[in-house]
Amino acid sequence: MFEILEHKGETAIRASGKTIEQAFEEAGKALFSVMVSLDSVEEKKEINFEVSGTKLDELFVNFLNELIFQSGINEMFFSSFKLEKIEKNENFFLKGKAFGEKINEEKHDLGVEVKAASLSGLKVDEKENTVQCVLDV
Amino acid sequence: MELNQIEKFLWEIPQEGEMVVPARVYANEQMVKELKAELDSGWSSLEQLQNLTYLKGVQKYALALADIHPGYGSPIGGVIAVDPEDGWITFGSVGFDINCGVRVLKTNLEKKDLIKKQEQIANQLFRDVPAGLGRGGEIKLNEKEVNELLLNGSEFALEKGYGNENDLKFTEMNGKSDLANVDAVSKKAKQRMFKQLGTVGSGNHYLEVQFVEKIFDEEKAKDFGLFENQVLISIHCGSRGCGHQIGTDYLQVLSDATRKYGIKVKDKELVSAPFHSEEGQNYFGAVNAGINVAFANRHVLAHLARKSFEKVFNLNEDEMPLLYDVGHNTAKMERHKINGSTKEVLVLRKGSTRGFGPGHKEIPKEFQKAGQPIAVGGSMGTASYILAGTKKGMNETFGSAVHGAGRLLSRAQAKKQFEGKKIIQDLKQKGILIKAHSFKGAAEEAPLAYKNIENVIDVMHESGVNLKVARVMPLANVKG
C-alpha cells in the first residue's frame, strides 16, 4: 500500500507492507506513480539491480534513487518490483528486480519526472514496516 | 518562534541557543502570516530557514528571499555564505537540480509579428526542443565527451558548433566554472548525460515565448537591450540526470561524512562535511562540474530555439542575442563584505538567483551601470520579470535575488483542484498557447498553485534589493 502526502514544494510518499522489503516495493510503485499512471505500464522487461547503504533508512533512499537511475538510462517506466531479503553485514545491501517497459509518450499517461529521493522527512520503521520520504520533482 | 520586524519588508529570527547567526527573511505582512501558519504543518519554511543558522561557519545571517517556500533541507529561496576556512558545505543548500536556471534570449520581433504565426512557432518549438519525461535529445555523447562537458561547460557546447562567443560572455561565470572536478563525478552520473544534452526535462521546467509588457526603468532597459512589445525566449531548466545523479551520489557520501566528523544537523537533508575535508572538496568539485552541465544544456537549448525561430520567422542567430543566463541552485566562491571587510566565502543558493550589482567585475561591461540582469520565472501563464541587481543587494543578500513565484499549493492539492486540459483551454482564450507533454504536469503548474509573483517582486523592489526593469507576459509555452 502507498500514498502521496501533502508537501508544498515537493512531493512526499509513504508506503507499507507485511515486511520491510514489501514496504520498499510499494514505495517503488509510489515513486513511479508520480511519473506515470501505473495501470498504463506493462511488465515487458525486467532489470536487475543492487543497492547498498550505510544505514537502513539510507538504503531505502538509495534504493529509490537506483530505480530513478535505471529508469533514466534504460528509458523505462517500472510498475512493480521484487526484492530479496535485505542483508546486513557491515552495511545494508539488497538485490532486486524492477519490471516495466520502454517509455512511450503515446501510450503512457505521463506525470512529472522525479529528480531524486531525498533524506528529508525520511522515516523507515522496521516494526511497523512503513517507509516515508520526500521526492524532489 | 520569534520573528521580529526590522524593516518594512525584512524580518529576523533572533540568534539564540546554538544558532551561529540569526536568520532573515524578506516578506510582507501577509506572507509572514502564511509563513507562521505553516509552522504547524510539518513542512515549515521558517523552520528550514532557522535550521541553516546552526551550520558551522555561516556568516552574518541565514537568508531567505520573498519567494520562500518549503524545500528539503534548505527552504527554496534560501541563501547562506560560509567561511571556507572552518565552515561546512551542506547538501541541503544546493539540492539535486544543480545550477537549474533561466536563460533569456532577445529577438527583434514584436508581439504583433509573433501573433501572426503564434500556433506555428509553438508547434515548431514543441517538435524541435526535446522536453518531457524520459525524452532524450538528438546529441549523443561518449564518456570522453561528457568529461569535456563537465570540465568546460558552455565552451564545450560552443566547440561542438552550437551558439556563439557572445553566449559565453552573457552567461554567469562565462558559462564555465573553473573549479569543476571531473574525477569526483561518478560513472553513473556521466552515463546519465549520454543522451540528455539539450533537453528540457519536466516538472516546472519550460521553454517560453514571451513579450515585454511593461518597462519600469527605461535606462536599465536600454542597457539590457529591452523595449516594449519585444519578443523574448526564456528557457528554464538545469543539469538533467547528470546533476541529479551527482546529488544522489553525494547524499550518501555526506551522510557518512556527517557521522565521521561528528556533525550535528537539524534536518537529515542538511548532511554536511567540513569544506576543506576530502568529502567536502570532492562534493564542491562535483557540484561545479554539474554547474557546467547546466550552462551547456541551456546553451544548446537556446541553439534549438533559435533554429525554430529561423524556420518560422526567417531570423538569423545575430537577431536573437542572449540577454543573460543565470543559475539558482549553486555552490560558488565569491567575495563579499562581511562585518566591514571583504573576504572570499562559499555562497550556497537554493532556489535563489545570483544578482550582482552595478560595478561588479564579474558582470559584462554592458551591465556595469545597470547591474546584472536577473530573470525571474513566473508560473505557467502568468508574468515573469527582468530585474536588476543592486549595491544594496551586494551588502544585504550576498548579491542574491528571488528566482520565481514560489508555490502556494502542494502539487497534490493542485492536481485535485485543477484539470490540465481545462487550464490549457482557458489560457488559450487569453492568447497563451501551452504545448505540454503531460496534462498532469500542467495541472500541478496551474497559475493559481503559485503565489502572486507581483507581491514577491514588489517586496524585493520596495526593499531596494532587486529592482524592477521589465514585466514580460507569455505567448507560448513548451512544457515537459
Written overview of the protein:
The complex is a heterodimer of chains A (137) and B (480). Chain A has helices spanning 20-35, 56-74; strands spanning 2-5, 11-16, 45-53, 76-83, 87-88, 92-102, 116-117, 123-125, 130-136. By secondary structure, chain A is α+β, with helices and mostly antiparallel strands. Chain A has one domain: Archease domain (Archease, Possible Chaperone, Chain: A, domain 1, 3-Layer(bab) Sandwich), CATH 3.55.10.10. In chain A, strands 1, 2, 7, 8 and 9 form a 5-stranded antiparallel β-sheet that branches. In chain A, a hairpin with a 3-residue loop joins strand 5 (87-88) and strand 6 (92-102). In chain A, helix 1 (20-35) packs across helix 2. The longest helix of chain A is centred in the middle third of the chain and has 19 residues, at 56-74. The model of chain A has no long low-confidence stretch (mean pLDDT 94). Chain B is of the alpha+beta class and 480 residues long. Chain B has a single domain (4-408, 450-479), classed as tRNA-splicing ligase RtcB (Alpha-Beta Complex). Chain B has 16 helices and 19 strands. Chain B has helices at residues 29-38, 45-52, 111-116, 118-128, 143-152, 154-159, 165-169, 187-191, 218-224, 240-260, 278-313, 391-396, 411-417, 420-429, 439-444, 453-463, and strands at 4-7, 10-13, 23-26, 62-69, 76-82, 88-90, 101-110, 206-215, 230-237, 272-274, 322-327, 329-338, 341-350, 353-354, 373-376, 384-389, 400-401, 433-436, 466-479. In chain B, the strands form 4 sheets. In chain B, strands 7, 8, 9, 11, 15, 16, 18 and 19 form an 8-stranded mixed β-sheet that branches. In chain B, helix 4 (118-128) crosses helix 11, helix 5 crosses helix 11 (278-313) and helix 10 packs antiparallel against helix 11 (278-313). The radius of gyration of chain B is 21 Å and the shape is globular. Chains A and B meet through helix 2 of A and helix 10, helix 13 and helix 15 of B.
